[in-house]
Design goal:
The protein is built from eleven helices and 21 strands. By secondary structure, it is an alpha+beta fold. It has a domain of 153 residues: FAD/NAD(P)-binding domain (3-Layer(bba) Sandwich). Strands 1, 2, 9, 10, 11, 12, 20 and 21 form an eight-stranded mixed beta sheet that branches. Strands 13, 15, 16, 17, 18 and 19 form a six-stranded antiparallel beta sheet that branches. It has a four-stranded mixed beta sheet with strand order 6-7-5-14. Helix 2 crosses helix 11 and helix 9 packs across helix 10. It is globular, with a radius of gyration of 21 Å. Bound molecules: flavin-adenine dinucleotide. Flavin-adenine dinucleotide binds next to helix 1 and strand 18.
């Protein structure tokens, strides 16, 4: 058969896109394929589980718009599907004077992005609510929360199937060509045909884009984010999300303390170059992928510019003491013995040929085709809004 639409990738973005497509075109046959044996196998299932409010992003930009919209849609979906979530609130904490201008800028952006009830606090005011948190000032963001994105993805899948869609796992897309009015998609499970094609491949998004004959302007570089887990005594001291003021030179938010929806508390993630696109630990090496990274001019430019920061991150990756020390400004009484090795996720970092890190969503449109070339954080929060934007792109002939 020829499907009306095939979507590659059963992460938050691919699944949410399938749902939105079913809403806009209820009569279409829709299939989502993924090479993994489960949904949310990569970024979506290995992230911090934070519901982002949209406070950080430049007003008027796509990330701000889709995050705020996606936030409300996500909460509505969770209410309908009885998915547990908690709006714990977040403290973004300045730990020294030099961070105050950055925190003020975030405050202004939050207001411009429509967030109400943000509160600027002195360190002591914050400690009335969160006694174990260090810092000289904080921005309280009541909208931020926690959730399990694997549970969200399972619910997306169930709704897609209830509406007659197919989610086919263990199916790797290996190539594609146009034939008359259809795309013929080669997969590890045989050929599939579809009139429309949407690729939401996360860590493989540039490779999938190339398969459709488009040359992406970016290459995906994999940056692993490693977590520690707090022991039970330390975990009791963290009731809210505790984030540093992010370094504006980097697209990552910095190591933070995150209560998880299952009761654990995580600390992390750092950001180290992974030696494979799906390299969840430093022993996983894919020589071909590593060579592609090292040969890439964008990586070389990044390495030249940030080698000092990279070396520090590498040291912190191997040294628990260094990891603890970087958390001390946020949690001064954190002991080394409070930290237990936790999991890791790998971020798909889209980097241009001169080393520019692309931190906004990036779609490439072709004929009856959309490649989602970059869907960085907060794409798990914003999945439904991104899905709607992708579907609008697809249908805008
Ligand atoms: C460490 C970390 C922490 C984060 N924290 C947060 C957070 O707290 N809140 C938040 O909102 N966002 C967070 N993010 C960002 C968020 O998780 C991602 O932006 C989002 O999950 C991206 O979803 P996706 O569907 O595009 O990608 P993915 O979830 O990676 O899904 C892509 C899918 O495509 C499949 N695929 C790839 N190639 C092929 C192929 N050839 N054939 C078939 N299938 C293929 C993969 O198997 C995968 O399942 C975090 C990310 C990381 C890595």
């Amino acid at each position: 058969m020829t499907y009306d639409a095939l979507i590659t990738g059963a992460g938050a973005v691919g699944l949410a896109t399938a749902l939105k497509l079913q809403e806009r075109r209820p009569d279409w046959s829709v299939i989502v394929v993924d090479k993994a044996d489960r949904v949310a196998a990569h970024q979506t299932g290995h992230n911090s589980g934070v519901i982002h409010s949209g406070v950080y992003y430049p007003p008027g930009g796509t990330r701000a718009r889709l995050c705020v919209k996606g936030y409300h849609e996500l909460l509505r979906f969770c209410e309908e599907e009885n998915i547990p979530y908690q709006l714990t609130g977040k403290f973004i904490v300045a730990t020294k004077e030099a961070e105050l201008p950055g925190l003020k800028k975030i405050h202004k952006r939050g207001i411009a992005n429509g967030l109400t009830d943000l509160r600027w606090m002195t360190g002591d005011e914050m400690r009335e609510q969160s006694p174990h948190t260090g810092g000289i000032a904080a921005l309280w963001v009541p909208q931020a929360g926690i959730i399990c994105y694997t549970a969200v993805s399972e619910a997306y899948r169930a709704r897609i199937e209830d509406r007659g869609g197919v989610v086919q796992l263990n199916t790797e897309v290996t190539g594609c060509q146009r034939e008359n009015d259809a795309y013929v998609i080669r997969t590890s499970a045989g050929e599939l045909r579809a009139r429309h094609l949407i690729n939401c491949g996360g860590l493989q998004s540039d490779l999938l884009t190339k398969m459709t004959g488009h040359q992406p302007e970016v290459q995906i570089l994999p940056f692993r984010g490693e977590y520690y887990e707090l022991g039970p005594e330390a975990a009791k001291k963290v009731k809210h999300l505790i984030y540093p003021v992010p370094d504006p030179a980097f697209p990552f938010l910095g190591v933070h303390l995150t209560p998880m929806i299952d009761g654990r508390v995580e600390a992390g993630p750092n950001a180290v170059l992974a030696f494979a696109r799906e390299g969840y630990n430093n022993k996983t090496v894919n020589l071909r992928e590593l060579a592609e990274t090292i040969k890439y001019s964008g990586f070389q430019a990044l390495a030249r510019k940030y080698w000092r920061k990279g070396a520090k991150e590498l040291h912190r990756s191997f040294s628990k003491q260094a990891f603890r020390d970087s958390l001390l400004p946020l949690m001064p009484d954190l002991q080394l013995s409070d930290l237990r090795t936790g999991g890791a996720g790998v971020r798909a970092m889209a980097v241009g040929p001169s080393g520019e890190m692309v931190d906004d969503f990036l779609f490439y449109k072709g004929e009856r085709l959309v490649n989602v070339a970059n869907a960085p954080s907060p794409a798990a929060t914003a999945g439904l809004a991104i899905g709607e934007a992708v579907v609008s792109e697809l249908l805008r002939e």
